[in-house]
Amino acid sequence: MVGFNKWNKVKTLAIFLLPSLIGMTVFVILPIISSLGLSFTKWDLIGDIQWVGMANYSRVIKDPNIHGALWHTLQFIAGYLPSVMIISLGVAMLLNQKLKGVVFFRALYFIPVITSWVAVSMIWKWLLNPEYGIVNYLLSLIGIAGPGWLVDADWAMIGVILTSVWKDIGFITVIYLAGLQEIPGHLYEAAAIDGVNGWQKFRHITWPMLSSTTFFVVTISLINSFQVFDQVWVMTEGGPAGATSVMVQQIYLNAFRYYKMGYASAISWVLFIIIFAFTFAQNRMQKKWGYSDE
Amino acid sequence: MNKSRMKKIGMYLLLTIGAIAMILPFLWMLSTSLKSSNVTFVLPPKWIPDNPNLESYRQVFETVPMGRFFFNSIFVAVISTFFQVLICSMAGYAFARIQFKGREVLFYVYLATLMVPQQVTLTPLFIMMNMLGWANTYQALILPGIFSAFGTFLMRQFFMGIPNSIEEAAFIDGAGYVTIFFRIIIHLAKPVFATLFIFAFMASWNNFLWPLIITTDTTHMTLPLGLASLKGRWTTDWNVLMAGTLVSIVPMMFVYIFTQKYIIKGLTHTGLK
Amino acid sequence: MKKWTSFALIFILVVSVLSGCTSTEAPAATEEPAATEEPTAAEPVTVKYMTFSAAPDHIADLEAMILAFEKENPGIKVDYETVGWDDYFTKLQTQVASKTESDTFELNYENFVTYASKNALYDMDALMAKDTAFDPSVFNETALNAFQLNGKQYGLVESFSNVVMFYNKDLFDAAGVAYPDPSWTWQDELAAAQKLTDADAGVWGTFAPIQFWEFYKTIEQNGGKIFNEDKTEVLIDSKENVETLTWMIDKINKYNVTPNDAKMSGQSDGDMFKAGKIAMLRSGIWMFGLFADADFNWDIALEPGNTQKAHHFFSNGVAISKNTKNPEAAWEWVKFYTSSQEAAEIRVASSWELPALTDETLLAAYLEQSPPESREVVFEALNTLVVPPVIESWNELTDIVGQELEQAKLGQKTPEKALQDAKTALEQLIQ
Q: Class for domain C163-311+388-430, per CATH?
């Protein structure tokens, strides 16, 4: 950079980064480090803290409840992540058109995002009702006998995924919309002059130009979906018979129902390692495939 | 011409089908909230209440000090949103644009903070706040919400998308990073500022677990706590709960529509360069 | 230099707003002592009380009790805090972890045992001995003793609710079936349920949820237990218990007199009863209010048993924190709140569960209310009360057994296998 000496750079960095760094350290990183410390202890929150070394971790690795929860969490991610990404991008591109009333539609699509999970679960339990639900009614029109959804152990997770995708479309759409705004219009104008068709425009302009947005959306959605909990808790409480029990549910139960803060922390750190590994791999992969962030 | 007309109709059709699916729960909440007390959830559901009335809304305001909770929620959300947008955008800019040693590692540390579930960091944070003597205060409600790795990450990604040429021109004119950021970048990045604004506001508005634990009197409690107290141990008046929920999402809706105006404005400004 | 001015501006803004938060806070903190209007009296002691049972329906009743208490005890001020049941223990634990919990707090019986075992509660024996005005005989003895651990009183019983059998009289009349009476056994219930079930109209004969609480009560109706007397041995997989669980599940799958989850989906059993779709329902007396405006006649009866009768209950008590600075004041409040005439009258009048007191006139006021007509059943059921098999790791116990029961219900396991698996898990728990 032109005429930029070292002292100047330090000052600039301090202005831009220091407020964030201090706050993050105090209010975010310190509690996280404390939880790492707690993961080596036995603590019921009421009595004294007892050091137990790696005992919690060796238990996590052997705990069948954790294995089940991890497996269900991965099932959730496999179903949720691709669907929500593709649908949201589609919706964002539709809502980015110069259509009359598009602002109105944008507002409607955001409603599920701001609606509480309690209300959402009530309505979706009804939509997915095996006897009276709309979903099974629509399926019956094309000759399919719908499953029991949330009350059927084999289908409950799919029901949860369906509901989660529906609720989060608006959230990811908003991010993609902002990303679409950043694409300079002259690129499309030039393409229009060259007579490029819609798919080619998407393939060669929109998609590459959205790469940093996509990187963000994939990373955040991956991290968040590993921590899926709220919707499971209000819709199925992990049931039927534990078929939808997920990782953060195990953490919640151990921390606040079973009085095992140390064990809950250890599960969290195992989950952390898994999320970190996935995020890191995904990061590398996106870089390799070209639509990276840098 | 005809083809583009067909295309338009197709798009409207798609949007409308989607919109119906999206608005369904909202209508259900509205319908439930207008029903009389003690009308239970029976299948198949009744969409039009027999005798619509506002009794549930009156009950919400009677059970919960809504005025105070509204004020607290708005106060906390506005302040933490303002500072979150400011601090995250500046940090995000540093991560995106300023070369420094350890940038990559520090960025991963930020990302990593998103990977530890809140359930286990809550108790340490609470104990820390108590040591500071901040339990049941506004600063305890606001401060932890300001510093967001999510927001920093979001801003970083968008600043990366802005062409370098704009800054280079400014550097040649002798401007520093601070000037460039506040004079140029902020104006270019309006859509993403609006996006972070809505997310930050929403996060603060819906935050439940932290206010639950850190507040101990109604002077400091926020709306989600009020809504939670409408649920009973054995039975819940769903119509009252839905009325409360509906009232509580109205401000969010306004904030969303307000920020969307800036995203549209961004539309006309792009292509500028 | 321009950049520095803009930065300084922002910095000042940050600092001023943050200190603004603090300074708006400061007067609020000093306000409380200033607000006490009697300069002559000594500074009143404040007792904090946290409760889950007051919100959302009984906040006004709680305030009335506090008002009456403060009138009687001018030196003590009570600050209450209500938290919904779902989140109450999350909050309480976090507060206990940093020793900032309220002076007094409400505990349901099961969690009382957990907190008392973990030594978080104040031993009330000394306070009781010192208080000459306190007469423990005003309480129902069994209920009061439930809030002891190892012979020491760690809480006073506040209230209880029990579970009885609700029945829809109109459906019984229409099917020409005689109303349930105390002599009924499971077989009588089944015979009636089969006559009452009308698949075409979507009406089901009988309903009992398959979950832990219902299970521990139902096994006792068949002479079974979960643990032996001193809770050192797990008996959950006994022959009687397998028989009981089979009976509970057969009502759904074999006899088709109880709806399965798919048939119910989304509706609660209470919703279905109120809609006239269930003829007999085992549920708590907290449903009285909800069913009061049902458009059919209903009443309650004792539950049928198999080899013996058994009824279960839910009870709440109030404990004093081990960390309180004002145990005497806290005691006065707890005593007043759980056992005073004034508080009990408010409680009965507003149907805020039932006080566990022996005063006959209070009970008379309760019995006068209707529906249901046979309110005396609520008290008759107490004669065959069974106490939950509480251990320190209670929540884990209920989750483990609950999960196994659900697997048996869904046919993933036979009742034998489910109860055997429960036994293995519970043995680890009580080690």
A: alpha beta
User: What number is the average pLDDT over the span C365-370?
Assistant: 88
Q: Which residue, among C83, C265, C398, would best test binding to A if mutated, counting the most A CBs under 10 Å from its CB?
A: C265
Pairwise pLDDT comparison (C217 vs C16), residue with the higher score: C217
- The yes-or-no verdict on residue C23 having pLDDT over 50 is no
Domain ranges in chain A are 1-38, 55-288
Residues in B 49-108 with any Cβ partner in A closer than 8 A: 87-88, 90-91, 93-94, 98, 100
CB C322, CB C119: distance < 8 Å: yes
Number of B to C CB contacts under 8 A, please give it: 114
Tokens, residue A70: 């991890």
The answer to whether the CB of C51 falls within 8 A of the CB of C81 is yes
Among A46, A130, A152, the residue with its CB nearest the CB of C96 is A46
Which residue is closest to C79 within chain B, CA to CA? B217
B13 to chain A: closest CA residue: A94
Check which CATH number belongs to the domain holding B198 and give it: 1.10.3720.10
Give the domain extent around B81: 64-229
Query: Comparing A289 with C132, which gets the higher pLDDT?
Result: C132
Asked if residue B169 is part of any domain, the answer here is: yes
B21 domain-assigned: no
What integer pLDDT is reported at residue C41 of this predicted model?
54
DSSP state of B183: I
For C171-181, what is each residue's pLDDT tens digit? 999 999 999 99
Provide the residue-wise pLDDT of chain B in tens; the chain has 273 residues: 577 888 889 889 999 999 998 888 788 888 888 987 666 666 667 778 888 889 999 989 988 899 999 999 999 999 999 999 999 999 999 999 888 999 999 999 999 999 999 999 999 999 999 999 999 999 999 999 999 999 999 999 888 877 788 788 888 888 888 888 988 888 888 888 999 999 999 999 999 999 999 999 889 999 999 999 888 888 888 888 889 989 998 899 889 888 887 776 544 444 333
Q: Which CATH class is domain A55-288?
A: mainly alpha
Q: Across the interface, which of B83, B216, B240 has its CB nearest the CB of C81?
A: B216
Instruction: Give the percent of chain C with pLDDT over 70.
Output: 90
Query: Which tokens hold the place of C10?
Result: 């922002």
pTM value?
0.90
Q: Chain A residue with minimal CA distance to B154?
A: A216
- Domain C45-161+314-368 superfamily per CATH: Periplasmic binding protein-like II (3.40.190.10)
Tell whether the model's pLDDT for residue A294 goes beyond 80.
Answer: no
- Cβ distance B112 to A272 less than 8 Å, yes or no, reads yes
Q: Does C266 touch chain A (CB under 8 A)?
A: yes
ipTM score of complex:
0.89
Whether chain A has a CB inside 8 Å of the CB on B169: the answer is no
Residue B245 near residue A118 (C-beta atoms within 8 A): yes
Domain count across chain B: 1
